[in-house]
Model the fold of this input.
Amino acid sequence: MADSVGEKKRVVVIGGGVAGSLIARSLQDEANVTLIDMKEYFEIPWAALRSMCDPSFAKRAVFSHSEYLPRGNVITSAAANITDTEVITAKGDKVAYDFAVIATGHSETGAYTKDEKFSQYQTDHEKIKSACSILIIGGGQTGVELAAEIAVDYPDKKVTIVHRGSMLLEFIGESASNKVVHWLKSRKVEIILGQSVDVNTAKDGVYKTSGGQTIDAECHFICIGKPIGSGWLKETVLKGSLDIHGRLMVDSNLKVKGRSNVFGIGDITDIPELKLGYLAQRHAGIAAKNIRLLMKNANDNNLNVYKPALPLSLIALGKREAVAQFYCLSCIGRLPGMIKSGDLFVGRTRKQLGLLSELQ
Ligand SMILES: Cc1cc2nc3c(=O)[nH]c(=O)nc-3n(C[C@H](O)[C@H](O)[C@H](O)COP(=O)(O)OP(=O)(O)OC[C@H]3O[C@@H](n4cnc5c(N)ncnc54)[C@H](O)[C@@H]3O)c2cc1C
Done:
């Protein structure tokens, strides 16, 4: 392992999302931390749909990496390559590491600066406000949470969800999914399952589904999941550590399989559990502990072990209600809503990163 700058080891974190931001923040005093992210800011992903309906909500949910990482280095560029000793960015930086942490869960498309992100929300907001009818393509968490935000804030608008699958929110189970369908329908949201829409064939506000149905809508939002952010690893020394789905294979200590000083955390990993932010944060906690131990030359047998989590989901339905699923048990309404839907964990996430819950 190369000598570190001064006394401190060099930790390079690639990806400043939910997992990467937290591990970079927690190691910044013990190591020489560099965070590489393709965008200049961190965004709390689960606040995004509310920010589309109410752009002022984004002010607390979007902030520069430098705000929570005052003692770390931030490089704004996509990572393009990793070797046994350094990470190379698209703009040509070569950053040597003693420990690397891969946390590129999903790639951002479109908004690389904070201003671009805020203006994206403003544009989305204008679109929602001015349309009488809105088509949402995709009935996963993003599509459902967006439909719910619009249905609650603008009860007179006609919202239609078209979803390719046979049920909404496939990952939460049938009973919870049925409760959500009932909740949405009671707010006049139309749901079309088992069909898709090619937006390129839309004409004069008329969209055609794969089943031949027509939908009148003044605007649409595509809410299908972002691809895994592992494309950049495919021609690197870690290409053999990707599984057939492009996920990074990690061991129980969260080290990338076959590597002694490279960790993988967050949605990019092949850990068999739901891909959720609070679990990505747990990965960050375990990997930070293990890096601390390895910096003190601890033996591998003493490293902390990550155990995949039990299935627990909480989906916001507007500002007051939510649906919760734990194993086969599900519950919808104000009770689960009290846990998540008011502030969408924004204050809590800010505090975890050492920021004040509210803006001053
Ligand atoms: C609408 C919605 C609601 C959600 N609600 C919840 C919820 O209530 N609770 C919950 O626990 N989870 C929720 N999730 C899931 C949660 O957001 C993800 O599990 C979490 O973001 C994963 O964190 P991550 O750090 O692995 O990846 P991400 O947060 O996706 O971060 C990846 C980072 O890597 C960067 N990146 C990607 N490629 C590169 C590259 N080549 N070079 C440099 N940087 C790169 C990106 O810019 C980004 O900053 C929700 C997700 C969505 C979309």
